[in-house]
């Protein structure tokens, strides 16, 4: 997230000065901001003091961190499910490559997973290194 040019105390001071009587366009010209920015500040920080504002920012950062942890855990669970499906398909149907596995999961089972994601997991499982054995004719040994 982009860091603000203004500190918490400067934002609160600007809001209080407008409450006292200075006009919004004057304040915006003085600070070099747009009126939309000022109104956004007022909607977000109006009625707060500096400690409360800093506490709110700490809580927002904590919330973002917890949200990231939740999303990562959810993705890990989905990736494990994809890996499980790929292993089951390639164990049962040894001649299926990525294309058939993807089409089966997408069209038959109805999963909405992206082909790039499935292929990434397919490669991580090293299923793409499957080598077909050569078919050779057995030589008849004459005695």
Structural notes for this entry:
This protein is mostly helical and 143 residues long. It has a domain at 70-128. The protein has helices at residues 8-20, 24-31, 35-45, 50-92, 98-108, 115-124. α1 crosses α3 (35-45) and α4 packs across α6 (115-124). It is rod-shaped, with a radius of gyration of 30 Å. The mean pLDDT is 88.
Largest sheet: none
- Dominant shape: rod-shaped
Q: What's the total count of β strands? A: 0
The CA-CA distance between the termini, in Å, is 82 Å
What integer is the average pLDDT? 88
Please give the oligomerization state of what you see.
single chain
Radius of gyration: 30 Å
The proportion of residues forming helix, as a percent range, comes to 55-70%
Task: Give start-end ranges of low-pLDDT stretches.
Answer: none
Structural class: mainly alpha
DSSP summary: helix tally:
6
SSE topology string: HHHHHH
Fraction in beta strands: under 5%
InterPro entries: Homeodomain-like_sf, Transposase_8, Transposase_8_domain
Pfam families: HTH_Tnp_1
Organism: Castellaniella daejeonensis
Protein name: Transposase
């Amino acid at each position: 997230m982009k860091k603000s040019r203004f500190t918490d105390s400067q934002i609160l001071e600007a809001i209080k000065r407008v409450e006292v009587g200075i006009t919004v366009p004057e304040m915006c010209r003085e600070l070099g901001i747009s009126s939309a920015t000022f109104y956004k500040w007022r909607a977000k920080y109006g009625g707060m003091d500096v400690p409360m504002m800093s506490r709110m920012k700490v809580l927002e950062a904590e919330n973002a961190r917890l949200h990231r942890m939740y999303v990562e855990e959810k993705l890990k669970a989905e990736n494990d499910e994809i890996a499980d499906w790929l292993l089951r398909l390639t164990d049962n149907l040894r001649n299926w490559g990525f294309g058939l596995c993807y089409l089966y999961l997408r069209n038959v089972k109805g999963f909405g997973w992206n082909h790039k994601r499935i292929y990434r997991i397919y490669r991580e499982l090293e299923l793409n290194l499957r080598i077909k054995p050569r078919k050779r004719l057995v030589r008849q040994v004459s005695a």
